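Final report, Chapter 2: Outcomes

The project's central promise was a pipeline that accepts a single protein chain and returns its three-dimensional structure in a standardized token representation, suitable for archiving and comparison. That pipeline is now operational. To close this chapter, we reproduce one record exactly as it appears in the project archive, with the input sequence first and the structure output second.
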Amino acid sequence: MLRATFLLVLFAISMFAQDGPDYETEEAKRKWKNGYFGVTPHYPNYLLPFGITSKPYKSYILSDEYKKYEAALQVSLKLEVTENLFGFDEEYFFSYTHTAMWQVYADSSPFRETNYNPEAFVVIPLALKSIPSLRSFQVGLSHISNGQGDNRNIIYPDGFENPGHRSRSMNSLQLMASFEHENLYTNIRVWVPNRHNENLKDNYDITDYYGYGSVQMNYFYKKHMVTLMGRVNPKTGYGALESTYSHPLDMYDDTFFYVKGFSGYGETLIDYNNYISKISFGFSFSR
């Protein structure tokens, strides 16, 4: 049986064999050798070995005592699925972003929080004479959660209070307009949470702290890049500011020294209603 299978494979290869290389074969070989699988960076990809916050993080697991120091990493990729279905040169994408906060300096080095963020969206390029700086419009669906369970019914030993519910999630419709003016790129984003199912039952008041939109500005000067993101709920006054700085390393143009500062609510889902001030240092592999 094994010999017959082997002979069948050899026969199939010989049927497709051609005299000399062809373009499609060479292109497939090139992509395989280069590890290409059709994805590109979405949000920044980074590894931040050291970050410090103004106070220790709240623990939602009885056995864990978190420190003010931790590492963080993010992997964010997108895949173009198709394009120009309706003649607007629009592009259709799937993306996935994985963000993890790692208490590497604590006993047993647990991951304090992990957020999972798959998205599906379409980008429509624009060229309007009335708004020349408006470059594109994006609309899509986003799901973000931390993959945790409901621990409110757990009975702890005497003297220990249940630390609270760990599960967090939000589904939303996302709209974004992108502007370009010389070296300044600005994204204005609005999100509309889906309140017609149970996806907000774990954190019904999350928009009190996240608001319903954000403004992000990215500025380039030579090889330097500075970003500033702000969001606020005008009704509650809660929100956040985040700023980053990056510069390519001398020996690697595609690896960057990366500094990230955050102040406000919602650094991660588990802390959406906890105020955090934090600065982190490390490296990014995309901007």
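Archive annotation: Residues 2-16 form the longest helix (15 residues).
This record, like all others produced under the grant, will remain available to the consortium after the project formally closes.
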